[in-house]
TrEMBL record:
This is Uncharacterized conserved protein, DUF697 family. It holds the Pfam family MMR_HSR1. It comes from Planctomicrobium piriforme. Keywords: Membrane, Transmembrane, Transmembrane helix. Residues 37-148 form the G domain. CDD domains: Ras_like_GTPase. SUPFAM superfamilies: P-loop containing nucleoside triphosphate hydrolases. The keyword Transmembrane helix applies. One of its GO terms (molecular function) is GTP binding. Signal peptide: none annotated. InterPro entries: GTP-bd, P-loop_NTPase. The chain crosses the membrane at residues 328-352.
Amino acid sequence: MWNPFKKLFPSRQQSEAEFLQAARDLALRAPVPVLWLFGKTGSGKSSIIRYLTGVEAIEVGTGYRPQTRFSARYDFPNENEPVLSFLDTRGLGEVDYNPAEELRAFGRDTQLMIIVVRAMDHALDEVLNALKTIRRDSPHRPVILALTALHDAYPGAQHPHVDPFDESPFPLPTGIDENLRRSIEKQYERFHGLVDRAVPLDLTPPDEGFNDPTFGGPRLKNAIIEALPGAYRQTLLQLDEVVAPLKDYTWKKALPVILGTSTLAATAAAIPLPWVDIPVVMGLQTHLAYKLARIHRQRLDAATIAKVTGHLGGRVAIQLAVRESLKFIPWVGMAVNAAAAFAYTFAGGMVWNWYFTEIRNGHVPTESEIRTVFKQQLQRASELWKATRSGDAKPV
């Protein structure tokens, strides 16, 4: 019984590659949203990824890895601790493109499709023909039509000062540019029956001079959250609540890793076999500490680990063990254990993140400070888990 799980626990005899492979296997079971972006080159798919993740263009570009001849995958923040995954189909318009290859590869492993079309682009036969095939294959998967580059209809002018589009399934307000209104109306007719809702938006680099470079972005995020199944919606809500308010680059880079590892820990803890997941969760927490040290460019040795975790590690292990006994109560125990593993992993990661930040600023935290921060972050993790488990939760 132990053999399938012991590979997830890093030891001196276990290589980094073995642990990463084991973590990737666990990630396949985690509720990580996979969004299938479908559209022509230049339609704005990468802009949507940058908006949802907050990363720079160059990071998105270097993070892609091929999936099929025409599609690539981007895992955020990385493939080992994913919080979000994007599949970008780029082969539209090529003479030999056929969606059958994508459908075989990942057609049933995506929770949501986003069809990305420039609002004023009406040469869309290849998009429509492929979408009809994909829709027939999975008629129940939600599909959002993202109409981008609205400014193509009014070059040289600004977006409306007040966003005229509401969050209805197919918004078409009065008072907008007449060319844009006619074009949007035509797009709705063209995609009728193929998409479940539409979101007109315009995401532009700040240096292009628009008064709102994320015009319609919040509406798209809300549409995605509403369309995703509950468990996957929770992941995106956690990302938005924790990362969005931050300005510090290092923290923005570290927190998705903490969330991703916490999700993996919760997934491991939900395995309905009492006692076997404690080493898994503890192993993920250890790996997280080293990952954060690399992000902060800090040295991590045995003495530092003993200082930070010495007063916390035993307590965490004991409390996890107590919650393990609840697994003998079907479903209820699994849910409690997953929440505990998420909270302890998140709190531990936040302590390490705070510790490295303090060291960088010239302050060496005391053991009392470490315990205080851990307690605060454990409470925050519990509140985050509860808030984002609600089916009615919205981004903060």
